[in-house]
Design brief:
- With about 260 residues, the chain is α/β, with parallel strands linked by helices.
- The protein has one domain.
- It contains 8 helices and 6 strands.
- Strands 4-3-2-1-5-6 form a 6-stranded parallel β-sheet.
- α1 packs across α3 and α3 runs parallel beside α4.
- The termini are far apart.
């Protein structure tokens, strides 16, 4: 059992599709003010509030009646998340995969005090039950050949920095031995005892070098690799892979990696 956090603390769960995401079925998800499911993760628990998915997500995998009896449930598609993503610099710099997209959308739309990830480690070793995802075998989207995903660690460091800039702590609730996310780990019971985002931020502050963050942001601005439509793959050949690799290195350095 976990106790509820103070009502004034806005804690948002981002739920992915790794096998360990099924742990959420055993948790009291009322701990979270909002629960954001990515792609197929809405199947894990019917307590989701938002389902975020990309343009190419198959329509037959969406819940057939997402609003029946749950007026608060919302489907979040590109028309909703692209404008938020652009406010944080766009997909080219953020990384074109849904875990990061969901994180930036939540920062913009939900304004959390704490952003907690589960099932988003982006490590696809087979689970004990077999399969790379909770529903069996799936295509590891973050591992595809993509100019914006040369370093998943760098992209997670960037998200961490943007969250901290708006006084939001970011944690990874996974207990898996490996993760591509650089977010600090936290157990669900530990999260339930957090009394303020400020306390959590103070603990995480040494993870980010302010000068390094500013350098990475300046380099992004100078490179000018914004694709406002969000469909960066339509102009991928025009994107400077080496410059993006350089920017990734700056974000890793800012996070001490």
């Amino acid at each position: 059992m976990t106790r509820k956090l103070p009502a004034k603390l806005n804690v948002v769960l981002i739920l992915g599709s790794a096998p360990d995401a099924l742990k959420a079925q055993d948790w009291d998800l009322s701990l979270f003010q909002s629960r954001v499911a990515i792609n197929n993760a809405w199947q894990i628990s019917d307590t989701w509030d938002y389902l975020i998915y990309p343009e190419d997500f198959p329509a037959d995998r969406l819940p057939s009646e997402p609003f029946q009896g749950h007026a608060q449930k919302r489907l979040i598609d590109a028309s909703s998340y692209v404008p938020h993503q652009n406010r944080y610099g766009g997909f080219v710099y953020a990384g074109g995969t849904m875990a990061f997209t969901a994180g930036y959308w939540a920062l913009g739309a939900l304004k959390p005090d704490v952003l907690a990830f589960l099932g988003c480690d982006m490590v696809y070793a087979p689970s004990a039950a077999g399969g790379s995802h909770f529903y069996g075998w799936g295509t590891p989207d973050p591992l595809r050949a993509d100019v914006t995903l040369q370093s998943l660690e760098a992209k997670s460091a960037r998200l961490l920095a943007f969250a901290h800039a708006q006084q939001c702590a970011v944690v990874n609730l996974s207990d898996q031995p490996a993760s591509r996310l650089v977010f600090p780990r936290m157990a669900i019971d530990e999260l339930a005892q957090v009394s303020s985002a400020r306390d959590t931020l103070i603990k995480q502050a040494p993870m980010l070098d302010a000068a390094g963050v500013e350098n990475a942001l300046r380099t992004e601005t100078a490179a000018g690799l914004m694709v406002a439509s969000g469909r960066y793959w339509e102009v991928e050949d025009e994107l400077d892979k080496d410059k993006l690799k350089e920017i990734d290195a700056l974000w890793l350095g800012a996070a001490g990696h």
